[in-house]
Batch of 4 targets.
Target 1
Amino acid sequence: ARLRMTPPFPRTRPARWLLGVVTLAGTAHMAAHTPQAHARSAEAGLCTEATAQAEHNLHIPDGFLSAMGRVESGKVESDGTVSAWPWTINAAGIGHHYNSQAEAVAAVQSFRQQGIMSIDVGCMQVNLQQHPDAFASLDQAFDPLRNAMFAGGFLLQMYDKTGSWPRAAAAYHSQPPGKGTPYQSQVLEAWAVPPDGREGAPL
């Protein structure tokens, strides 16, 4: 899948309360309460479960954040379907998929040593330069649930500003009017035809 060439976030910072949302108890809650979600590989399943849990906790329409994740970090599986990939980086406009969290963390460190600071990471491609306080460490940045909860909280802020989920997705990508429209279309297309066969929620 073609990765996004520009970071989705505006340069404003989300509220710091989001960092306290994800706890070990939240992880246990995910196992108990998340509607079953399906993925084609164990790694992709991490993003699928994380975005489903964020949707549940933050009252985001079923499948919407998951669709955004597939647009953000989508990787083509062996059967041709696209799944969000937790070990994804976009650095200087170039997307990279890695085989493990350790590889992804090492890659971010390497990019920074090269002077590349605008780096998107994880299932939801949170930009570390624009959101320096989002995560306490790179390991946290690549934690699928923390990544999805941060992104979901930011999406909620955009929903409060715009009044609709499609417009919120566009603002998540870029707040200047019109710049997020192509991204919004990609998200709505992914939401309408999820790879796990679930029906997308109405607008």
Target 2
Amino acid sequence: GPDINISFPSDLLKEVQFDQHDFDRKLNYYAPALVALSTGSPFVNGKLWQWEFGKYGKSFRTHKRSIIAPVVEYHGGEENRIEFKPLDMSPYLGDFRVQFLLVIALVVDRDLIGRCDRACRIYELGNVAKFGLDYAPAVHKLTALIREAEAILPRIGFDIAPLEIAKKRIKDKLTVADELIDLYMKDRSMENCLQFLANIYE
């Protein structure tokens, strides 16, 4: 998966009263929602990940990493760089624009009130790995985050047009994982799935 790296001006962090401990709790709450939007690794051992008979998961990567891997790393000595780590890789540049905007919103928006602990995050990531955007609690949080991002990001100079990509994915319940699952189910061909990804130039 990609690591989303963003550096923040010190005066901005001071203005929003950034607190690392509090931000960790905020990420515990909202990170699974961002992961649900990014789910895109439904394969294991050359075939679809079947977490229960007849039920295909959306992110085997999330299933494996959610218990042991960190969501974020801080690099305060590198111009306040925050490294957001749990997302699946997307072949679409538009998805990266969405991810950057939503991570920035998480940092600067003080009106996002959701907080929880690590155990809550792990539990929700387990469900996100299986269900993606079919997991209603994640969609609820994601919708709230997008709404706040649309309100605050223009105030600090960001174009929020890419957020329409996220809203469409939510409406259609269609992630990269869903695209790949649908394609694989047509002829059980990993080659066709890889060719599909290779041919995306967006």
Target 3
Amino acid sequence: SSSGLRISVGKNNSQNDLLTTKLAYKSDIWLHTQKIHGSHVILWLEGGEADAQSLTEAAILAATFSQAGDSTRVPVDYTPVKYVKKPAGARPGMVVYTTYETAWVAPDGELAKKLRTPARVLPMDLGDPASFEEYKKLLEEEKPLISTLCNVAGFGRFALFTETPLDVNLSMIDINDKALVAMTQLSLPYMKRGSRVINLDSL
């Protein structure tokens, strides 16, 4: 949002289901157009409170990414996630909710473009300690809000342990273990409540 709170919009039923029933905290705000098919929208409070500007922008996004996207005035219901329930056996994205309020807003595609956060690529050699120093310096300069840290780097070698060169085995430890610890420790100071660390591994 313009105030700095994170807003997520589901692009399909599966994403709607994931956002609302798996990722969002009970205190986060869920928004959806009233009796109109559309995206689930989550306003992440991250331990704080929703300001009026962020709530309005989240409602506008809910209206924009709905079947009423071409309308001029759309009702959007909003409520804490704890009041949103998925009935047993319901298809992905199907929920019921109570204790809500309704905002009337106008869809705005330009706002959606303005608030969209582009992905940023940071080339790093996770086997080189100098890369972590560069990453630390970047964080200190920009002080970003990191919402999700996904540690997925790693490599392996299919060979007998005794036949694998020592430098290769040590490199695997550097990438698979040391890099995970370093990235997590450096990133945590820039994460708030509601942020997540996801570690992926191969078995």
Target 4
Amino acid sequence: PSDPASGDSISGLIPSHVLEENLAAELVRAVHECSRIIVCYLRIDRFDMIDEVCDFSIAANLTRMIAERLTRRAGDPGRICRTESGGFVAVFVGQDAATDQLDVGQSIAAALEPPFVLGSMTRRVTASVGVSCFPDTASEVRELLQQAAAAAYAVKRTGGNDVHAYTAIRDGDLGRQLKLADELDGAVQRGEMELVYQPVLSA
């Protein structure tokens, strides 16, 4: 795995671009080994409310504790990251054909079930979890991540605290919206967007 020295300052996890590099390497290995890779995207339910009600140090401590539990479940710190939007991505490699995607997603959601103790506070946390799988639903890194995110957002829209495996019929439109958002964000960062003013003249 790549050097995680420039990891996320709050969670202590590797940055998302390093996870993508590691995932790309695992995809090559999976092709040779004829194995499957399962990607889980987690959105912590109502975390924005925790952020608003609690001070920064409490929210940061909770984020670190969540990251520690997810890392233990993933089994390798090079296979889990925190995204720029505050979600988490966990990668499970070497899965065989008998492995159920939903079982993997539910197992990582279960890691959050015991309450978190934050000083004098006790906080229970649930997550909206989306799952994608190589080669079942995607064959490329970005596609796997976008599919898992789309499935997670589908869970969030129905109330959260559940696990969905990506399906093109149910989540395809949302996946395309997320892909377009990524492409627009990249275009802005590369300076490819221009603002054009069109004068409105009265008759």
